[in-house]
Design goal:
The chain is built from 20 helices and ten strands. It is mainly alpha-helical and 494 residues long. The strands form four sheets. It has a three-stranded antiparallel β-sheet with strand order 3-8-7, with no helix packed on it. Strands 4-6-5 form a three-stranded antiparallel β-sheet. It has a two-stranded antiparallel sheet with strand order 1-2. Helix 15 packs across helix 18. The N and C termini lie far apart (117 Å).
């Protein structure tokens, strides 16, 4: 009797089915990516909530089809991997004898503690360039071939660095493996916000900035995904694409770069770098105390403040508002001395053409936008000189505008940016600003007091940062309203 090898046929059938299933899954993902890319490429505003909800829905569908490799991929804690990382640092001449890596406060993660008493201004770590991951290294090897074919990657070094980081993360024998193993597996940047967390920012200018950031990153992701499908020969040689190139993994790489990148000098220009160990320093108020020695090719960091043995040693990230810190570093704090609020203002489009042209000419001569962002600052004079100048021009009648326009550029600058407030037009300018600030306060869904109560109810780390920003913004607007009232009252008495 003739017999058939059913087991072989069955095995071949299973393999064929698995192959077809995998191909179908890949095609489904590709269709979703193409759909999102088309949406991102459409012209028009991308900072509104209705448009964002459409994007968010498509992203959820895409992520349901993908299997990210990084989030929750390893149960071994970062702290347990520190020993191997320290050995790697020692082997590559990183001087870290003055500090030790330790767990810091909840929600902050790992940081550096003083191993002994460190005085203010004392050097505490030195990191040679040979352990740094540089954006320029993305131009090498197979990844370099992909970069050479894409003008966008060439023009955006931080994007190239993120792609390099992700490629190395999926390379088992990577030179940087001990460093990559101690990086966080997730972040508190806007790319990790839920829709509900983003809604907590309703009324805040920061919500618009978060949404814009997400749109931009999604568009970059879809661009790179489609680029890899157009260059299959090169992409098939890169671990970053062999892993499936999931959106969530890309968010991890982008967040790792935005929260850690630093510029180092490079032959009259600069290179973007990830600096192992140094990037574990958390933020404190102070001044920038990190230098790069181009001769020794080392990053040298000096103590911002004195620290006793066992105390955390931090660095100053630079002058950034809470909104900027949340967008690029994933945190905010109420005592930020550099905090400010951006408010969007513009000239009325309904007034007469002649009057509008004079206002436009004056603002342009002052270097101010016709429609754009102006700042409020904490302090005795919260109204920025540029904002005050705009309000004066906005409030002036035609006769005053003609007089102002006849002044020289220097005279305009002195008169319109002067902090002294007196006269009818200054009163009108203050009244305009006060009403605008009050409208901005009303745009928030919750009061300052309600946010404070929510903050005290032990929210998640992301919610804590969001509520901190909302409280600071409302406080600044409230103080600015009172400032306008006080100045108008003084002006009236005069």
């Amino acid at each position: 009797k003739h017999t058939t090898c059913k087991n072989v046929d069955c095995g071949m059938g299973k393999k064929e089915k698995a192959k077809k299933s995998q191909l179908a899954a890949s095609n489904n993902i590709l269709r979703r990516v193409e759909e999102i890319f088309v949406l991102c490429s459409k012209e028009g505003a991308k900072d509104g909530w209705p448009e964002f909800e459409v994007l968010y829905g498509l992203l959820e569908k895409l992520q349901a089809l993908q299997k990210p490799q990084i989030v929750g991929s390893d149960t071994k804690s970062r702290l347990e991997k520190v020993g191997t990382f320290v050995q790697w640092l020692d082997h590559h001449d990183v001087d870290h004898s003055a500090v030790k890596i330790a767990q810091t406060s909840e929600g902050v993660g790992l940081g550096l503690q003083a191993a002994h008493m460190i005085q203010q201004g004392e050097k505490f770590i030195t990191v040679p360039i040979k352990v740094m991951m540089l954006a320029s290294q993305a131009l090498e090897g197979n990844l370099g071939l992909l970069v050479s074919r894409d003008p966008l990657l060439q023009a955006m070094p931080h994007l190239a660095l993120a792609l390099l980081l992700l490629n190395e993360r999926f390379t088992p024998q990577s030179f940087w493996k001990p460093y990559l193993d101690v990086l966080p597996t997730d972040y508190t940047t806007p790319l990790y916000f839920s829709k509900e967390e983003l809604q907590l920012l309703h009324g805040s200018p920061t919500q618009r900035e978060c949404i814009k950031q997400i749109w931009n990153i999604v568009k970059l992701y879809t661009h790179l995904f489609l680029l890899s499908s157009k260059c299959p020969t090169v992409a098939s040689c890169l671990p970053v694409f062999q892993s499936g190139f999931c959106y969530r993994d890309f968010c991890w790489a982008v967040s790792s770069v935005t929260t850690r990148q630093n510029k180092i000098p490079d032959n009259g220009s600069h290179d973007l770098a990830l600096i192992p160990l140094w990037d574990m320093c958390n933020h404190t108020e102070g001044e920038i105390t990190t230098n790069y020695n181009p001769v020794a090719k080392q990053c040298i960091c000096y103590a911002v403040h004195s620290a006793a043995a066992g105390e955390e040693i931090c660095i100053y990230y630079g002058r950034r508002s809470n909104s900027e810190l949340l967008l690029h570093s994933g945190f905010a704090y109420s005592s930020n001395r550099s905090d400010y609020l951006k408010i969007r203002l513009g000239l009325s489009s309904s007034e007469g053409r002649d009057t509008r042209e004079i206002r436009t000419a004056i603002l342009r001569q002052l270097g101010l936008p016709i429609t754009g962002e102006y700042r409020l600052h904490f302090g005795d004079a919260p109204i920025d000189p540029d904002l005050l100048a705009f309000a004066r021009v906005f409030s002036a009648n035609k006769e005053l505008l003609v007089n102002l326009n006849s002044l020289s550029k220097q005279e305009k600058n002195i008169k319109l940016r002067a902090p002294d407030l007196h006269g009818e037009n200054d009163h009108k300018a203050l009244d305009f600003l006060q009403k605008r600030f009050e409208l901005l306060i009303m745009a928030y869904k919750r009061s300052e007091e309600e946010d404070t109560k929510l903050l005290e109810s032990t929210p998640t780390i992301i919610t804590k940062h969001i509520l901190t920003i909302c409280i600071c913004e409302k406080k600044l607007l409230r103080l600015s309203v009172q400032h306008c009232r006080d100045k108008m009252q003084c002006n009236h008495k005069e």
